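Let us begin with a simple case.
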Amino acid sequence: MSRLPPLPDLDWPDSQNSAAPFARDHGDVYFSGEGLSEKRTVFLSGCGLPDAWSGREHFTVGELGFGTGLNLLALWDLWRRHRPSPTACLNYLSFEGALIRKDDAARIHAAWPELGELSQQLLASWPDRARGLQRIHLPDGLTLTLAIDDISAAIPQARAKCDAWFLDGFAPSKNPGMWSAETLNHVARLSAPNARAATYTVAGDVRRNLEAAGFSVAKMPGHGRKKERLEARLIAERPPIASVPKTVTIVGAGIAGACAAHAFLRRGCDVTVIDRGSSTGAGASGNPLALVMPRLDAADGPAARALVEAWLYARRFYPALGSDAVQQLDAKHLPRSEKEQLRFAKLIADPPLDETILQQLEHGIAHLNAIAVRPRMALPYLMHGATLRFGASIADIAELPADLVIVCAGIGLADIGVHAPALAGRLGQLESMPASGSPNAIADGGYAVEAFGQLVFGATFEAAHGEPQITDAARLQNLETLARLRPDITPADITSRAAIRATTQDRLPFAGAMPDNEKAPDGTPAPFSPHRLIGGLGSRGFLWAPLLAEFVASEAFGEPSPIEANVAECLNPGRFLARAARRGG
């Protein structure tokens, strides 16, 4: 199976009065001629909207079959007119096997000019062609989480509690996997108690599969040429509504802490950020520039998927900070060895991303619209609205007054008594100098990035002993990197900076609940604290931090997860303890 998801094979109608293309690969149309009015009757009214979200600050809708995005637009329009409060949030979790192109979506949306403004905003953030989950923030408190993959692969990995479901795959006879007993069992698993579901089909297999999954099912009058439709409700007692954090304390004012602050501030929390340093970005996050680009794996798997999802989220996240903090640029990635050249060849032969993001060069690859971040502007922006406490000494995080504590302390975790994955410090020195060229970047293990009137190059990656120290040997190594990557530049007026990065033994970061102890009394892996960790970001902190912070915040608020279950497992802070337990020590 190709790592890139397929594109739908569309056949456009001859009639100018129909906006619905025919999907040759499924032998079905995306919607009937009634289009928008059918969507409103079958799905919005069928799920009792807007009454179902009355008085709710958080509401989640699930969907099988993102299709043209028309269901989302219809829901968004209703939400705008009947939003419970100015701070209420609507999450939309959707599954799609073959995402249509943005231009095709625009052609379809044009049939309903009353949705024109919403369509433009959705098209401006149209998902990328890539397998996995994509998290997209839209106006009006609306967040889209889109899973692009075969439904049999995608839905078992999802985590959510949906209050309503739009079951809108192609006809069951044309697309049986979307309506199978296994799929609808997962719909039930991903549902909140008493969740409602609606669909246009009344096929007997669908009714029976819904009932077997725990839904009560009723036929209702149809719409247009369809005589009947289905409404369903999950039969379950409603437990007490889980509380969400109102006060959050974040330990660490680097990029992980700043992104965590931003994620919880956006959800209306009262956020305090504390740091033992004297300002934001006192550690590695305080470099003059950060280059955000991925190191993509040639094979698929949870770790490779995590990198792709972090990269796609970062590409959307940083440009919103504004031109004072972020400049976009194309980054060349050159191989340093024959082994890496072979890796690049495998990557291009079966790419995880299409040519709008990843391109082959004569020597190496290009990451289009990579990002240069200016931390001294970005970090304060992300923490705007939080209470900042610098020079703070922390003996025990249990003493911090907050509903939730997020520890993003880098290599300083051990200093505050947190039981966490063993971290190794890696000293990184880089050099900067004035520059006047257009934004650009080139890397081959070392890197040189030019943006905001300066050139930053390096960086070393060596064992750290004690406090970070600037050395002549490290500067010489970085000058050799500059000469290799940018022989056109004569170095002058160089300034050096050194900082320590925190890395894990498997070079992947961690995010999630922190272990309470190294082992539980029976020798099994540790139980977990209600507080959360984000760390081990290594030399790609600015790539990882936005998605990891969004994951932790989504988990705290009971929202759909922006990463798959197996991705969350490979990033779990307790993974090293579990491995040690399996080894018997």
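The second case is a distinct protein. As before, the sequence precedes its structure tokens.
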Amino acid sequence: MIEERHGIDFAEHQRPSVTDTLDAAAGQRWRTIIDHGSALTLYTLLAIIASWPLAPSFTSAMIGAVEGVDAYQCAWNLWWVADSLRQGHLPFTTALLYYPYGIDLFWQTLQFSQGVAALPITLLLGPLAGFNWTVLTSFVIGGYVTFLFARHVTGHTQAALVAGMIFAFSPYHMQKMVDGGLEVTAIQWIPCYWFALYMLLERPRWQLSLLSGALLLWVSLGSWYYGLFCVLTTACAALVWLLVPGSVDAPGEQQQRWRWPDAKRWISAIWGVTPLIWWGLVLTPRIISLTAQPDALGDMRRIQADRSADLMDFFLPNPLHPLWGEALRAAREQLYPNAIIWNISLGWVGLALGLIGVFTAWGHARRWLALLMLTMLLAMGPTLRMFGHNTGLPLPFTLIQNLPGIRAAQRPSHLVVIASLILAILAAYGFAWLSQRLPTRSLRLAITTGALGLILAFDTYAGPMQLVSRTVDPFYATMPPPPAAAPGRPSGAVMPLPLYLNINLSENLTTQMTHHWPILGGYVARPPTYTFARYTPGVRELEGQLPPLDDVVSPGWPESGQRGLAAYAIRYITFDLTSNKNGYFARVRHHAELLQLGQPIFADKQLEVYAVPQTWPVGPIGYLGAGWQDLEQAPPYRWRWMGEQAELQLFNPLDHPVRATIDLLAASYQQPRPLELRMDASILTRLNIPTDKPQMQSLSFLLEPGEHKVTLSAPATPDRQRSDVPISVRVFALGFRFAELRKGP
């Protein structure tokens, strides 16, 4: 009997010499080095080709649609992760955005994993280089780990090379690169997790369970979309390994048929869900807080159907291809007018090889096929859509649609990234079968080269990439470091205009990467409730609102605006003249003149910069918050109505408490009404507001440092003259006075 291994024949009765054994081991090591080096080199070269001309502009430009809106936001994420880790603290919260409150970035598109992986590049060459490094390595690492995965599963090196390219260079991945969203472009961590999960399902061990759990967390911190989808498909994988028989490996063993799961399959399935346990334990505090506020991340269920996959989308040819892409996109537009996020093509080469794999390696492929079908079903969202028609037929996604976290996921179609990985494994089986039919090594090399070339030319190629690069005005580099009252607690900010609140524009993030100052507003995927610019005197007027001339509040404009800017330590106001908002800036300049900001300290064709005078006194302020109706006048009187509730905002910027006094002149609607004043969680007082002959009432209390909210509450009655809008109390005068506490003898 002759056994063939690595191309060398050994007879059973022969015993190789020590020299032969060492030579064989050395040869095997060299073949391993060549295999791995070839795979890495191949994917690197292909990544450069697919993203060309990105490489020559590695430190100066990025790929990103819509003038780089998302690309520059993602570059900011890399910059912030690198900067915060360099300073020795975690980046999951920041005081740099939405000043003065800051923002929790944990559930945002922070891309922590990508930021850590690109940390040396970002620190050495800048955030644009870190962005481009991550884009290129998404192809290289994604392809290489898929190569390792497929080779482990199939035992075939050339088939594994093809599988790595099918996953890493899929039309979906190319679309994400074109869009500029690094969170979803970075697909490279997904095969890392799935490789570990597969090994856990096949050979359960606690070490693999912990490794899989850690990798699942790593995927999630890189992209909550991909983390969530890995959680869902992990449950699917455990179900498939439980219900679908495995492959036949032992010689002479008969093909396994479906039967009730035995103990081995139950053990495998139970071990398969343990990564979810470790993942959940680490995230328990965050998940509990999210469960308490299920819509804290937004409720996206109303748009999930529009951003789910149509059945035909999986099988479309590459929609980015320069030869037929435009015609294909136009044809699909006829079916789904104004559709977005629909390029989830699996690639025709991968589909063809996967189909061959299913038929030629059924015993090995059936579990992967079942998992692929489940993943595609989830990607199609709540109802089945086919060729532009919503059938209304409910799909499995409806069973989980209302869960916290999932209800905030607006892109079920992105599950195709996991479907692409599964298809790559099936394609590896198919290509291995084709390759084994060829008699010579040269023919096998030729078909491998042909398959790789066909994938690149047909499923991957999208033409030369369009690069974006923004110019930052040199003034920002000359700004002094931001002051800090304590480490990590800045006490000053830049107000960049326009603020772009709740508008998908990232220009203010771009300049912040140069000047490093906290800014008002910001651009994140899930904007927080941010009323600072709506109510704060000085800020609201410079943001574009009309000054509240002759309002019921005293001190009035413009003194209130000066006090507001000084109290909140807003140091600079910048005008981005490249925004083409000439009318807006003309209005804001008038407000700045009324505030007596003075002349700009810097001005060119792109930028104007004003410095808030340091002579303005810093002290406590009070102003109107939410719940107040518009100012009304009937000379000599003026007033504002409130409904059931209205708010007053108080801010003490000092490091010690002061005595605050609120003076209130008010009358109630139709009948006397009780008015309760509550500061934060404590009741200040209850007043009885008469219907006529209002009397000035004063309330004094201790105001601690920081922000406080005084809530006014009174029973309200619908007013027919106001379309039944409820009203309760109208305020004719509202004054805020602050005094230092008297010191003892």
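The two ends are 108 Å apart (CA to CA). Residues 1-14, 249-253 have pLDDT under 50 and may be disordered.
Keep these points in mind for the review questions at the end of the chapter.
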